[in-house]
Design brief:
By secondary structure, this protein is of the alpha/beta class. It is built from 20 helices and 13 strands.
Length: about 425
């Protein structure tokens, strides 16, 4: 139901173009927040290319026991392959410390023409390097919450940010900005704002169900993902830390201040934030200081994947924009179009830019959120002093659904709906 109602961009680029050819003899790892439909997408996309999906769930005690005892479910897999070409989806195997050994054994035993997909809601850490054998056989993609275009049903694996060269990006951006916000897009945005970016509450589209689903979301993830994968005992403090961050969305976070609020040291808070980020509850945006006089070099801003719980309207819109930009960077990276990353700019005298998209170490888009005055600030208009000449295109996001005003050849004010439709 999820993928029938919403057009998932992931199916287009992970399976049709990348994952299936890449899984000869490699496998694919798909990670992302709990509830984005990773396993559902895998099974439906596999069926679409003529494969019969077999799902092995690490959460099943019988499957988990067999894996831990080294009794891999080879017989089930062989029976599945005898019926017709199959895709083996192993759900949440990343919770198993020896998942790499399991993957390599599956690939060794069943050969090059099989399809293996691992799904999970935990990121690998930098301290978990992949050996050469695993790295050559494994392709990793991240599936993010729904975008406006996916909810609208017009998702495409193309964006002006993916174009090579300043002139080409600018030309495609100008053309894309002229595309207005259709009635369907306005309805999709209203649905997103009301029910959040996760498929299940969007499918139900009922206020009571949506409120109940989002209310317990963070707690479920902390218990299910972090609780059984970490040695953290005080999970309540972890939930309090998540709540403290949610009230500071869009502001530079002081780990010491959060520690004082939850009664923990800043060292503990730092560790907890890393786990919340690993579990796809939070994502961080670091400062960009290259060429920025008196620019901040430390202090991340933190945002939520499940932004519906944010009460302040301005903070909620900022989180929506942050997630859309973060997601676009991830998709462009997965498409191998460059090394994209999201930053913010801020100086010690509190001047700055809300967001800066960087490709291969060079700024390609500056984004600000409109405040009380719906006009670009002087800092935003004069961003070339920080970012070089010519500066990257700049977009001021307005709180209304639609709207477009050009201030100079590289700066526009754009309504929220029109802006979100520019991204992947």
């Amino acid at each position: 139901m999820i993928n029938k109602r919403f057009q998932r961009l992931g199916a287009a680029y992970m399976f049709a173009h990348h994952a299936v050819p890449a899984m000869r003899p490699s496998a694919t790892m798909i990670t992302g927040p709990t509830g984005v439909g990773k396993t559902c997408l895998c099974t439906m996309a596999a069926s679409a290319v003529g494969l019969s999906p077999l799902v092995l769930d690490w959460n099943d005690p019988i499957v988990r026991s067999r894996f831990r005892k080294g009794l891999l479910p080879f017989r089930d897999i062989e029976r599945s392959f005898e019926a017709q070409p199959s895709a083996i989806v192993v759900r949440d195997l990343l919770h198993y410390p020896k998942w790499k050994h399991v993957l390599l054994e599956l690939l060794r035993r069943f050969g090059a023409d099989r399809r293996f997909v691992l799904t999970g809601a935990l990121k690998r850490t930098p301290s978990e390097p992949l050996d050469v054998s695993t790295r050559l056989r494994l392709t990793h993609f991240e599936l993010m919450p729904l975008s406006l275009r996916e909810v609208e049903g017009t998702a495409v694996a193309a964006c002006f940010l993916g174009e090579a060269g300043h002139s080409k990006r600018l030309a495609v951006l100008r053309e894309s900005l002229l595309s207005g916000v259709s009635k369907e897009a306005k309805q999709a945005l209203a649905l997103l704002i009301r029910h959040g970016p996760f498929p299940e509450p969007l499918c139900e589209a009922e206020d009571a169900f949506s409120a109940l689903w989002h209310e317990g979301y963070a707690g479920r993830v902390i218990q299910d993902e972090i609780g059984r994968s970490s040695r953290i005992r005080d999970l309540e403090a972890l939930e309090e830390t998540y709540g403290a961050v949610s009230r500071r969305v869009g502001r530079t976070l002081s780990e010491a201040a959060v520690g004082r609020q939850v009664g923990a040291s800043h060292v503990s808070v730092k560790s907890w934030l890393e786990w919340l980020e690993r579990a796809y509850l939070l994502f961080s945006v670091p400062p960009w200081s290259n060429g920025v006089g008196r620019g901040l070099k430390k202090g991340k801003k933190w945002y939520l994947f499940d932004w519906l719980s944010i009460n302040a309207p301005a903070a909620k819109i900022q989180n929506m924009v942050a997630l859309a930009l973060y997601r676009t960077c991830k998709v462009l990276n997965d498409l191998c179009l460059g090394n994209y990353a999201l930053y913010y700019v801020k100086t010690i005298d509190q001047r700055g830019l809300d967001f800066l998209v960087v490709r291969d170490g060079r700024p390609v888009l500056a984004v600000d959120l409109a405040g009380d005055v719906l006009k670009p600030t002087r800092v935003f208009r004069n961003r070339s002093s920080w970012l070089g000449d010519p500066p990257p295109p700049g977009i001021l996001v307005l709180p209304q659904i639609d709207g477009l005003e050009q201030h100079d050849s590289l700066t526009w004010s754009v309504g929220l709906g029109r802006f979100l439709r520019l991204l992947l």
